[in-house]
Give the backbone structure.
Amino acid sequence: MLKVENITKYYGDFLAVDNLSFQVKPGEIFGLLGVNGAGKTTTFRMIVGLLKPTSGKITLDDQPIDYNITDQIGFLTEERSLLTKMTVKEQAIYYGTLKGMKENDILTKLDELLKKFKIEEYKEKKIKELSKGNQQKIQFITAILNTPKLLILDEPFSGLDPFNVEMFKNEIKEMANNGSIIIFSSHRMEHVELFCKKLVVLKNGKTVLSGDLKDIKRKFRKKTVEVVGDIDIDKIKKIPGVLSVSLDNLKYQIKITDESISSKVFDVVSQGKNITKFSVEQPSLNEIFIETVGETYDK
């Protein structure tokens, strides 16, 4: 288990991370979110041992994270960290060796992953000769060569088309099913919702939202009623607690302050014609993020 306990990090007088705590169990995919400057990168660097917290502690299986443990960690950074003049094979040997792997084991695992990601023909190619998408595949492969116990993924789908995103998703889920601890960060909230059951949202280094995603959605007051059919929009807008009414892809989106208003909306909608759908939808993580942080998570 990864335990982050009351960590605080100062750069001089600047407070980058303020009393952050969370735990991630084996097999869990945990979301760490925030806009630029929120403290995510500093937190990642403290977790992998590149930075020391000013206070608090971080442990993996009750052991402090130092050079005795870092071989069990994989880290895919948002910025590409590939050595572009190396071939894919040379890059893998370099990173694998840094993780304490033997060359034969590195090459066996590399062949397996290249085949899985359908890029076997690039093994002897230089990194600079690859497309951005294939470079991202190689960066991901080098992050998981050592089958890490703890894997940190910062914007893992950057530069990928939908087909390759699906391949990454499958591999991430497979690693979690095999017991890896995974910390996931992305500005694509639909990806976070797909993977993460628990999350923390940071703003200016402080935790502004944390917990189980289902509980967060249940407690978040704003809801959306989706309706398909002919309804009296003006009458619905006059209902106390209705925030807005819009039409999107033949569906009316009725924003309400909380779920208790839905019965009043239903009373009006039921008087309409050709009603084929009435459902109260939970807010999306993107809506919750904007409401909590006060801005969109757009890089």
About this structure: The chain has ten helices and 14 strands. The chain has two domains: 2-217, 221-281. The mean pLDDT is 91. Residues 65 and 103 are 25 Å apart (CA to CA).
